[in-house]
Fold this sequence. Notes:
The protein is 55% helix and 0% strand. The chain is mostly helical. Helix 2 crosses helix 4 and helix 2 crosses helix 5.
Amino acid sequence: MSAPASRRGFLRGLTTLPLIGGSVVLIGSPVRAAQPITPGMLATYSAWLHMEQRAIQCSVGINEGTFIPCVNPGAHFHFDHYNKERFGLEAQLRAPTVLAAVGCPLTSAEAEEAWATTFRPLVREGGR
């Protein structure tokens, strides 16, 4: 059987499988959420990242301090391909994808209003 036909048959077979938990998870890298980057979204993403870090620390017994070992792929992700001009912009562009992937609202009217002056200079035109 040829490779393209094999893939089609495999994918067709997936449609007949019963769903466990009522959903399907696609494996792969999300490209990017089609959402403009706003000050409120950056505030929401910053708060989400902070609380995510605290949740991980609490889960492993770190209740005080913020020491994070950085000899791992998570730290190297940011610096192996470091480009000063793209560093912050790429982090901003990940915000809607990460928030959407975890099911967190991307922003709120309160976040937009409260953070408009703080993050406005940092948001690139159109978020792109």
